[in-house]
Amino acid sequence: MTIDQAREIACARLPAPEPCSERHFNQCLRVLLSALPKRNSDEVSGELLIAAYQRKLGGFCRDQINYLSDKALERCEWFPSIAECLSILSGWQRDDDIRQLHDKAKSMVLWERQARDCQDFRVWAGIMGKKESHYVPTQRTGDTG
Length: 145
Known about the structure:
By secondary structure, the chain is mainly α. It is 66% helix and 0% strand.
């Protein structure tokens, strides 16, 4: 990747991840429902519960839903509320190929900028001359003067 390509990638917004499929979401929700105790409910309220969770959490991507399922099973003693699910999801960090490419591009741009700044400093110090430079060499061992 060239530095110009890196600048373009680093400046671009990351595309939003694709939302999780309804099938996968429902599978993860069923795992949580079977593993964590919840209040008793009949068939109608169970369907309403699934519909409410789907409406509020269905727009998250597959990796986020997987993260939610894993963390809820680790942390929760009871089936989590939607608010608890959103709190758990706030700890998720994107780490897909697109994010890694974006981070690599930002790093390249930063290193290029730092290298350019160092070169500018060396040129500027050379133009200023030794007399005006803020750099003062330290006295070495054995120097008397």
